[in-house]
């Protein structure tokens, strides 16, 4: 490095915090680029190397300067590259998102740039009394795609509950994408059951997935609220609440649990998996808790002991707590009826 550059670099280092902030900013520029490239269809259009002109035609771009500016960020962050005048995807994040299995990764980026950012953008005003956000029903589709991330984390825990068992019937409350039903089926094909979700867009997503996975004979997807779910199906050998308990107010949880216990078969298992209050020890849980405290219809992450004692009050026994990752407050609970 020549002396002139070294001096400017040293001047940057002299301003406390500037260098680490610039690094963080670069990471956020990458996230924002990937978001725009995904939402605009650019990543999809780049499934094969493509000239700028072909991209403009394919995507029917109306504002060329803005499109060029975005391509430039793609090149500067090394998410894109260009060879023989053709653009292609270079970065591993963009490559993974453009891949056939990239939907969950895309949803992580979408969640981060939309409702997670909104929660922080509005945190100051809301802390001082402004109305909480009222768009929970608009983000359900992204939440369900994002939440599929839970699948590989909890699979061994679910295996310990269903593998090698005789026929089991399952009720997955707040089924989201329906991944839990697929996981259970992969671990024990002798199952059938119901996935229930209150959000219509999410129900469409789950129905579509269950059909694509060839599981429509095994699982029905219902649209509805568990609190008023009048379906007579059951009793169930396993009822799951995956990433959903914080959608219920604290004062409603006792009734919810009793309702679910009534639907459990003797020796049936109630499974709860979610982020619990991390007391500043788990950044993912703490981040989610900001969203939970920002939107109407969500509640703060509860303490694990609170939920364990709720299950005991409802007469469930042999309660086991499962730690998935060291230092994480993302936990599983299994409790038995009778
Ligand atoms: C964070 S998502 C989790 C989805 C899925 N269990 C997963 O882990 O991927 C919570 C889901 O619960 C659904 N939900 C919330 N309250 C509900 C209720 N009272 N009855 C049925 N579904 C509900 C929401 O619509 C949402 O799709």
Characterise this structure.
The structure is a single chain. With about 350 residues, this protein is α/β, with parallel strands linked by helices. It folds into two domains: about 5-100, Winged helix-like DNA-binding domain superfamily/Winged helix DNA-binding domain (Arc Repressor Mutant, subunit A); about 145-335, 3-Layer(aba) Sandwich (Rossmann fold), CATH 3.40.50.150. The protein has helices at about 5-15, 20-40, 40-45, 50-60, 65-75, 90-100, 105-120, 125, 135-145, 150-160, 180-185, 200-210, 255-265, 285-290, 305-315, and strands at about 50, 80-85, 85-90, 170-175, 190-195, 220-225, 235-240, 265-275, 315-325, 330-335. The strands form two sheets. Strands 6-5-4-7-8-10-9 form a seven-stranded mixed beta sheet, with helices on both faces. A three-stranded antiparallel beta sheet has the order 1-3-2. Helix 7 crosses helix 14 (about 285-290). It is globular. It starts with a helix and ends with a strand. The model has no long low-confidence stretch (mean pLDDT about 95). Bound molecules: S-adenosylmethionine. S-adenosylmethionine binds next to helix 9 and strand 5.
Features:
globular, alpha/beta, three-stranded antiparallel beta sheet, Rossmann fold, seven-stranded mixed beta sheet, 338 residues, binds S-adenosylmethionine, 2 domains, Arc Repressor Mutant, subunit A
